[in-house]
Amino acid sequence: MTGWIFDGKPFDPELIGNHYGFVYCIRDRETGKRYIGKKCFRNTKTLKPLKGKTRKRKQVTDSNWREYFGSNETLKALVEKHGSERFERTILRLCKTASEASYFEAKLQFEYDVLLSDDYHNDLIMVRLNRSHLKSLKTPDRKKPL
């Protein structure tokens, strides 16, 4: 299986640090078709309280990001049929929060018209964001208002 590429080099897990996850692009080397998505590095599982206690417990584990090939059923079937070596997986951006990952995933999906182009496997863009979760991303060089 080919690993993830970041900044033109194999991704070093040491870079994860306190990042939540990443936005990625998977490209079929044979057809050129792509898929843009996001993935988290860790999963949080809620466990029942210990005997005699009332507070639920949380357990953090690594997600399956190392073996992940997107949530699109067509893409997963192609990986199953042709093997993972046919696909190139690139991390486009490391994200500190879930909201940041959702924002940049949707931004890239709209920017590249993934739903209108036959060059992409994406079938759905689903995002719900709150402005307050993105305050750290604000920069002064935004486009002028319409």
TrEMBL record:
<protein>
    <submittedName>
        <fullName>Phage protein</fullName>
    </submittedName>
</protein>
<feature type="domain" description="Putative endonuclease SegE-like GIY-YIG">
    <location>
        <begin position="4"/>
        <end position="122"/>
    </location>
</feature>
<dbReference type="InterPro" id="IPR035901">
    <property type="entry name" value="GIY-YIG_endonuc_sf"/>
</dbReference>
<dbReference type="Pfam" id="PF19835">
    <property type="entry name" value="SegE_GIY-YIG"/>
</dbReference>
<dbReference type="InterPro" id="IPR045566">
    <property type="entry name" value="SegE-like_GIY-YIG"/>
</dbReference>
